[in-house]
Amino acid sequence: VFDRNKDGQIDREEFAFCWNNWIKKIVRPVSVFLVVDVQNDFISGTLNISHCSARQNGAEVVEPINRLLETVEFDAVFYSLDWHPSDHVSFIDNLPQRKLHESSPVSTEEAKTYDTVVFEGPPPMKQRLWPRHCVQDSWGAELHKDLKIVEKSIKVCKGTNPEVDSYSVFWDNKKLTETTLVSQLQEKNATDIYICGLAYDVCVGATAADALAIGYRTILIDDCSRGVDLKDIEKTKNTVTSNNGVIVDSSQVKAMV
Ligand code: VGL
Ligand code: ZN
């Protein structure tokens, strides 16, 4: 149908014309905006990502996210919340109450924040240790006060099982339990998911990977995300693009939805 250039690629302008005028009407995409973990603890609290190696400022995502919420007509908006009980397995101060597996690279005595340990099974479970963060109903678990909460939006809690961490907004890290997001996306017949937030290389990355694995058209919004480690952010981007996801700037989103 489309004319192709000498590299065999279709003309962007022609495609945009066709997309906006008739393809979109036929395929009827359902676009969902998923704002991941824009919570106080990651911005200025106990897991302040600006103290991590990438030295990024989490507060910087609020403005571009608000702009998207104000200017783009998504079919649904979700906000996820890291929502841990006090005895959560990822908190370094809970380590003395738990048993490490013999294969753990560091012992209970040696373990420092951000180290990865292996907990006793079955099966043995790798776990990165974080400072106590996003404890249910605490200030640190609240969404940033300047983040716009749109009408009819839906909140999704994750990480509520004390025994297993949950980076993806779809499933916990052991894939034992799915969150409410899974059924709600099915109900809405969602096709496209726009993902951004904190932390780029942890929860945003894990969520995008799961969205791609399910088969959603997955769009990661780069300038609306901040992370922990630059190398891991690069890895996250590579995983997304090599699995047919796209990474865009927020300025490109309005024209895509
Ligand atoms: C997250 C570390 C621990 C995140 C959650 O939301 O990216 N990071 N728990
Ligand atoms: Zn957490």
TrEMBL record:
Q: What is the lineage of its organism?
A: Eukaryota, Metazoa, Ecdysozoa, Arthropoda, Hexapoda
The molecule here is called nicotinamidase
Metal-binding found in the keyword field: yes
The EC number(s) given in the record are 3.5.1.19
> Into which family does the record put it?
Belongs to the isochorismatase family.
- The EF-hand domain extends over 1-25
Pathway(s) where this gene product acts: Cofactor biosynthesis; nicotinate biosynthesis; nicotinate from nicotinamide: step 1/1
Q: Name one GO molecular function term.
A: nicotinamidase activity
Q: Name one GO biological process term.
A: pyridine nucleotide biosynthetic process
Keywords noted in UniProt = Calcium, Hydrolase, Metal-binding, Pyridine nucleotide biosynthesis
